[in-house]
Write a structure and sequence with these properties.
This protein is of the alpha+beta class. It is built from five helices and five strands. The chain has a five-stranded antiparallel beta sheet with strand order 2-1-5-4-3. The longest helix is centred in the N-terminal third of the chain and has 49 residues. It is elongated and about 95 Å long.
């Protein structure tokens, strides 16, 4: 805007003044819009952080077991509740095959269910499945679980949400 346009360019000084005024107005409007967008980013980032904290608290303090599996059924995420419910730390689970923890009588049906869920790529949850899982102390617990394909962008392909139904099965 501050550059001089040579007279040979054919611009009349009045035209240049109007053009400079219009361009200045556009620049001001763009700066205001830019500031508005920056404020929206700040607000949305704060809302996202609040939401993330909320859901992290639900997962970290909930009793449901949440597992993330990769396409070869290796555990790539395990909620902290596994320690309280089954006696395993997250580090003891990560990188291990989920099948290593499933009762041999339940392993084939569970594998089929997981492979089907991975192949369909649907984020709808499947029907609940009941199976036994090995506790760290060597005992078995009954779980009821639903599986879903993980949303894109996560480090795993499937999510299993489970809850202990051992008492229900005993009665």
């Amino acid at each position: 805007l501050e550059q001089q346009i040579p007279p040979s360019a054919g611009w009349h000084p009045r035209e240049l003044a109007v053009l400079t005024h219009e361009l200045g107005g556009m620049v001001r409007r763009l700066r205001v819009r830019h500031d508005d967008l920056e404020q929206q980013v700040v607000e949305r980032t704060a809302a996202l952080q609040t939401s993330e904290t909320h859901f992290r608290q639900l997962i970290e303090h909930g009793s449901d077991l949440i597992i993330g599996l990769d396409s070869s059924l290796m555990i790539s995420y395990a909620s902290p509740s596994h320690q309280a419910q089954l006696g395993y730390t997250q580090d003891e689970l990560l990188g291990r095959s989920a099948e290593a923890f499933i009762h041999p009588d339940d392993a084939a049906s569970m594998r089929r269910r997981l492979e089907n869920k991975l192949s369909e790529q649907s984020r709808t949850k499947g029907d609940p499945i009941e199976f036994r899982i090995l506790q760290a102390d060597g005992g078995w617990r009954w779980l009821e679980a639903v599986t879903t394909a993980a949303p894109p962008g996560l480090a795993f392909s499937a999510v299993i949400n489970s809850r202990d139904i051992t008492q229900r099965k005993a009665s």
